[in-house]
Amino acid sequence: MNKMEIIAVIAAETGMSKKAAGEYLNTLTDVVTEGLVNDGVVKLGFVTLKAVDRAERQGRNPQTGEAITIPAKKAVTAKFGKVIKDAVNA
């Protein structure tokens, strides 16, 4: 399911226009992003998103086999709730 399909479902389920549903989805994305940047954790009930630090590590260039250093960075992890886990495994 892509963004446009999600917007269409939101519009159909709520009765709002597709434009309003798109604005709603964009606002939600902005709020979640801001929460991860500022607080590091966003709990939505069905999923918990967490910003984590990845340490610098060694890797290999697959074309040359040369050792390279992969720099430290932040990443986002997702832990899904029981409802989603059960639905996917049903």
Structure report:
The chain has 90 residues and is of the alpha+beta class. It has 2 domains: 1-39; 49-90, no CATH class. The protein is built from 3 helices and 5 strands; from the N terminus they run ααβββββα. It has a 3-stranded antiparallel sheet with strand order 1-2-5. Helix 1 (3-14) packs across helix 2. It is elongated. The mean pLDDT is 95.
Pattern of helices and strands: HHEEEEEH
The dominant shape is elongated
- The whole-number mean of residue pLDDT values reads 95
**What's the count of strands?**
5
Task: Tell me the strand order in the biggest sheet.
Answer: 1-2-5
Describe the secondary-structure layout:
Blueprint: H1 3-14, H2 18-38, E1 41-43, E2 47-54, E3 57-60, E4 67-70, E5 73-80, H3 82-88
Antiparallel strand pairs: 1-2, 2-5, 3-4
Descriptive tags:
two-stranded antiparallel sheet; elongated; 3 helices; 90 residues; alpha+beta; 3-stranded antiparallel sheet; 2 domains
Q: Quick recap of the structure?
A:
With 90 residues, the protein is of the alpha+beta class. Helices cover 44% and strands 30% of the residues. Helix 1 (3-14) packs across helix 2 (18-38).
